[in-house]
Write a structure and sequence with these properties.
heterodimer, A: about 280 residues, five-stranded parallel β-sheet, B: about 140 residues, Sufe protein. Chain: A, 7 helices, 2 strands, about 10% strand
Chain lengths: ~280, ~140
């Protein structure tokens, strides 16, 4: 596929339709709109909701290893299941779920290129039936912190002048808005960006049909225009860490950066932190 | 209890999963936008800008009754569902009934946790818009007569 660094992390809608009944794969739908799955989903697909399933509100963190094990075993996922993620908004939430599965050390994860939008556009089958998959046995690993950054590391990273990519809209980056245009403006005390971060809105990486751009196009954006260097540790962030997981995916798998971390605390944390600098210059 | 309060009460009495099923039912029964508003919608008029998903809204007050017409893309069933609740529950209400609906009513649907509070805020803007529009039309009717 399009000459990517790790082309095996993408599958086409065609491939998914041909493998709907394979026993070693599990299709996961992850959306922003919580009703889309109920409205109709790929036959056999199970939903994962980033908020209800993956986050523990009490600790403002991801669920524990044991909770993750319980969650995925119930969906019939075992350690060697090949996970196929797809969803709305050009796979924005699917990439987030993919990142979360990687955080718990799941090995075989792929994204269906084009997501729900392309599947629907091609009039492939959708069903309202809720699949029942037999309970599986799952053993999660300790969280893989090599793909996740905490605030202390981000501060050190920023002060050391290391590369960062802010994947929010230009208006959020400049501090004019605290959330995407037309979303309610809440969540952070200050507007701006982390000093040293370049701005590449996440959707720059996708085509109108929801598929990823070619490697050549992506290199032009991230390497030529923004001068990001695959050899350096790079952090990505957005408002709450979901849009940036999409960019994390692009940099890691499509462009082959070996060391990219998602700062999931993102702007709602940084914009509110006491004693850390922000930048409003564009 | 007016129609909207009855609907909210119905949502509150259900568990999480059934609530979403009910919301999807509403999404599927949002009436089609009347032909007379189609052209205006196509050029972007009457869009509710507080909602990230494009929502188009028209309010009419005729002979003491309120009529609401709306359009929301099928790809956004959650927003469609909530708009449909408003359209179905508020159509034929009296202006006074509309005026008396508490502004935070949508927060009581019990889906804030799942939909995200921010989304509910955007949707509350639709209720606010309906109220303002009814108020405006009553005023202009008053001036006309």
């Amino acid at each position: 596929m399009k000459d990517y660094a790790y082309p095996e992390v993408l599958v086409s809608t065609q491939w998914v339709e041909e493998h709907l009944n394979d026993s070693d794969i599990r299709i996961i739908e992850s959306n922003e709109d919580i009703l889309l799955y109920k409205k109709g989903h790929i036959p056999g697909a199970v939903p994962i909701d980033w908020q209800a399933d993956l986050q523990d509100q009490a600790t403002r963190d991801y669920v524990t290893k044991e909770e993750f094990e319980q969650l995925v075993s119930k969906k019939g996922i075992s350690n060697d299941t090949k996970m196929v993620f797809y969803g709305d908004k050009s796979n924005w939430w699917a990439c987030y779920a993919f990142w979360a599965f990687k955080l718990y050390g799941h090995e075989h994860c792929v994204i269906m290129d084009g997501g729900r939008q392309k599947w629907e556009a091609e009039k492939r089958p959708l069903t309202k039936d809720n699949p029942q998959h037999p309970l599986a046995k799952y053993e999660a690993k300790e969280k893989d912190m090599s793909i996740r950054a905490y605030r202390a590391e981000v501060l050190y990273h920023s002060k050391s002048g290391k590369p960062m990519v802010d994947v929010r809209s230009p208006e959020e980056y400049s501090g004019e808005l605290l959330h995407m245009a037309d979303y309610p403006q809440e969540g952070a005390m200050r507007g701006g960006h982390i000093p040293g971060a370049v701005n590449v809105p996440w959707e720059m990486a996708v085509n109108e049909d929801g598929t990823f751009k070619t490697r050549e196009e992506l290199e032009k954006i991230y390497l030529e225009e923004q001068k990001l260097d695959p050899k350096r540790t790079t952090l990505a962030y957005c408002r709450i860490g979901e849009r940036s997981s999409h960019t994390w995916f692009v940099l890691t798998y499509l462009l082959g950066f070996p060391d990219v971390k998602n700062y999931d605390g993102s702007w709602v944390e940084w914009g509110n932190l006491v004693g850390v600098p922000i930048d409003r210059n564009v | 209890m007016n129609k909207l309060e009855t609907t909210i009460h119905q949502f509150q009495s259900l568990d999480d999963d059934f609530r979403l099923d009910l919301l999807l039912d509403y999404a599927e029964k949002l009436p089609v936008l009347p032909e007379k508003y189609q052209a205006a919608k196509d050029i972007g008029l009457n869009r509710v800008h507080e909602c990230q998903t494009p929502v188009y809204l028209w309010v009419e007050v005729e002979q003491g009754k309120v009529k609401i017409f709306a359009d929301v893309a099928e790809e956004a069933p959650t927003v469609r569902g909530i708009v449909s609740i408003l359209v179905n529950s508020l159509t034929d209400a009296s202006p006074a009934e509309i005026e008396n609906i508490p502004n935070d009513l949508l927060f009581r649907l019990g889906i804030g946790q799942r939909v995200g509070m921010v989304r509910i805020q955007g949707l509350s803007a639709i209720l606010y818009r309906i109220k303002k529009e009814v108020e405006k039309q009553l005023k202009s009717d008053h001036l006309d007569s």
